[in-house]
Amino acid sequence: MKPDMNQEMIDAIMKQPRKFAREEDGTITIFAMFMVLMMVMIGGIGADMMRHEMERTRIQAVSDRAVLAAADLDQTLDPEAVVRDYFDKSGMAGYVSNVDVDEGLNYRTVTVDASMTMNTQFMDTMGVEELSVPARSRAQEKVNKVEISLVLDISGSMKNNSKMENLQDAASVFIDTVLTPGNRDLISISMIPYSEHVNVGQKIMDQLNVNQVHNFSHCLEMPDTEYSHASLNQGQTYDQMQHFQWNYYSNESGSTRNTRYDTVCPRNWYEEIVPFSQDANDLKNRIDRFKPRAGTSIFLGMKWAVSMLDNSFTTLTGQLSNAGHVDAVFANRPATYGDHETLKTIILMTDGQNDRSYRISDRYYNSDSEYAHWNRYNLQYYLYNSVSSSRRSRYYWRRYTASLGDSLLDNICDAAKVHKMVIWSIGFEVSDHGASVMQNCASSPSHFFRVEGVEISEAFSAIARQINQLRLTQ
């Protein structure tokens, strides 16, 4: 019997492990415990990473602000000191690890590396006791060589609503904004005032082939084919524009008598084209003298603006420089189109739209005595006082219509865009049609400003800021 009892005891003992192995109660609880532990660990990692990102964002924001301020070329303080001061004021004085400043005549680049160490709250249980929080920012302000054609409307309608005064204020602020001491020898402005025509001045006329017949004013007649390309055809012999006043009424004198203030070709020295200048005082002095006169030929102003940025004009600029009319530093302007360090930009402003324009018939304008005659007499005054009504129409003919002017403007704007010139246009209290024409000329809809009253100052200021913009590059 004894062996049987021993066997039974052995069987009983072995039965319990087998039963335990087959038993499934409690297995989910154990798995759940492991899952909860993993969730706590993952949640803890997430919490630490969220804190890490919050700190990184805070340091990055301070870093970005610091380099933007330090890279400003108008900033006279030491750039590195500016960066460190920003961090100090933000309670992060010890976070800056490196400040690199690279600057030259026309640029300043500031790079900052910053970092801090953040103690972890959960990840330290896994052996990660701290995390590094880095930030890096780089800002650059660079004034490339900039060639600006500033095209200003001085037509008769500018006498209304203080438009001329508002333009004078806005254009002067623009000049002061771009022609700063820090930009010296880098930015040039060619100023092209226009009304019904453009006074190129005797200096430029002397460099071209011109059939000059009088010295009363200095405008050139431009063949319509010239608007299909940016260059000025220097092989062309240009006819000089007739000198006469079409309007019976004079804006400057306020009289319908025999006035010759509002000649089709602007005749005063301050209305001449100014080529490649950085003399802010001279430019502003001329602008302050502007008077509203005659009609509006936007396309003529734009043609000269574009041609003076075309590299074929460089020969003329060199000749003007040799004669002392252009700064020697600009003698090789305009730059070639392949010069990626030079920005060519046009600011085209008008308060109206292209208008019709007339010329005296050749048979009444073909001798020295007739040139002198029309310098003495207002055309309309003479016709209404000395010529019978049936014969008056023989004395003149229409050179441009408004629609032809719009077409020529479209052509020359397209020619400028082919060469990647940046065109800003300002419609100053213009009609819907005038706004449409000016917007079509601009490089993009965002390059067009339609403004009223003193808003013109905001437009010029915005353009000036864009020309000399500050960019966060990294």
From TrEMBL:
Listed Pfam families: Tad (PF13400)
Keywords: Membrane, Transmembrane, Transmembrane helix
Transmembrane segments: 28-47
UniProt domain Putative Flp pilus-assembly TadG-like N-terminal: residue ranges: 26-71
InterPro entries per record: Tad_N, vWFA_dom_sf
Listed Gene3D superfamilies: von Willebrand factor, type A domain (3.40.50.410)
Protein name: Putative Flp pilus-assembly TadE/G-like protein
Species this protein is from: Sulfitobacter mediterraneus
Species classification: Bacteria, Pseudomonadati, Pseudomonadota, Alphaproteobacteria, Rhodobacterales
